[in-house]
Amino acid sequence: MTARIIDGKAFAAILRESVAEHVAHLKQTKGITPGLAVVLVGDDPASQVYVRSKGKQTVEVGMHSYEYKLPADTSEYDLLALIEQLNYDLSVHGILVQLPLPKHIDEALVINAIDPAKDVDGFHISNAGLLATGQKAMVPCTPLGCLMMLREYCGNLSGLNAVVIGRSNIVGKPMAQLLLRESCTVTVAHSRTKNLPEILREADIVVAAVGRPLFVQSYWLKEGATVIDVGINRIDQADGTTRLVGDVDYDTAKEVAGAITPVPGGVGPMTIACLLANTVTACCRAHSLPEPKRLTI
Ligand code: NAD
User: In its keyword annotation, does this UniProt entry include Glycoprotein (predicted)?
Assistant: First the structure.
């Protein structure tokens, strides 16, 4: 069997188009332009790339992008003061603080200082709680993108066995909550899980969010499973260059899976597209306007 390749890049382009259409509609009919504020503290090169890409795509869909680049020695107090200012700023509908933050800043404190209604990353404790209790929440972008692709490729997910590998607050846990909400039978595997290959053999859906290159082996998978690879890992090549790979041994897994996301070009592009979609959703909620159904789940 050769898997269908889940083209996250194409999927993200369609989602961005829907976002752009809705932004244009909000401008024309209500005179409102959604705004996204991205806060970067320090000069981590990977974070700088992400922030640049987010800003560029925000502008491309017609939204306002506000970037705050703060030095690495910014105090927690000053960062919290900026968050408070953005919370009150009516032109800002979404606030994202790029993680990781420098060690002297308490990440949880900062994330929980964001107005939950503007928490487009969905990391605020209120949004985590709302999601866990099946209420309307801001859903974290990466799991949201994964679920959108799963729905597209699997249709109705009800009753399927889903295994999420990884239990982080930003991917594994919210992913498991979303799959539970879809009436999947969900298993969350993690670093202490015993017999992972045995657990995976029963899985109709596998979401790998481990952070270990090529970790999931093809012979662990059930034939025809849908595999979503969240991992982004750089590995060194013999010629001195680096290559981006996921958490799944893609080349062999695609011979067993029914559908699979590649890395790059799978989950990654969907994450930023979902950030833009969440910003539009937050803007609609802030103005008590109907939420565009295509932009959320
Ligand atoms: P994390 O380090 O916070 O969590 C990793 C999880 O993997 C942990 O819960 C741990 O228990 C589990 N784990 C570790 N070793 C394991 C093992 N041997 N067996 C089973 N489980 C094991 O990482 P994260 O933030 O959740 O990210 C995971 C991966 O996804 C990383 O590669 C990250 O770069 C990537 N990521 C990608 C996107 C995207 O947009 N594509 C977004 C976020 C994270």
Answer: no
Count of beta carbons in the 10 Å neighbourhood of residue 190 = 13
Residue 58 lies in a domain: yes
Residue 295: inside a domain? no
- Calculate how far, in angstroms, residue 56's C-alpha sits from the geometric centre of ligand 1: 26
In this structure, are 259 and 152 located in the same domain?
yes
Based on the fold, state whether residues 105 and 215 are members of the same structural domain: no
| Ligand 1 binding pocket mutation candidate from 50, 111, 191 (most atoms within 8 A of CB) | 191
Q: Is the pLDDT of residue 293 over 90?
A: no
Give the residue among 281, 289, 278 at the shortest CA–CA distance from 30. Answer: 289
Residue 242 backbone dihedrals phi, psi, to 5 degrees:
-115, 155
Overall average pLDDT of the 247-255 stretch: 98
pLDDT tens string 146-168: 999 999 999 999 999 999 999 99
Q: Can you say whether residue 262 is alpha, beta or left, with left for phi > 0 and alpha for psi between -120 and 50 degrees? A: beta
Q: One of 57, 119, 121, 222 is an active-site residue; which one?
A: 121
51, 53, 210, 228: which to mutate for ligand 1, most atoms within 8 A of CB?
210
Q: What is the DSSP string of 234-261?
A: EEE-TTS-EEEE-SB-HHHHTTT-SEE-
H helices of 158-225, where? 172-181, 196-200
> Domain containing 161 — which CATH number?
3.40.50.720
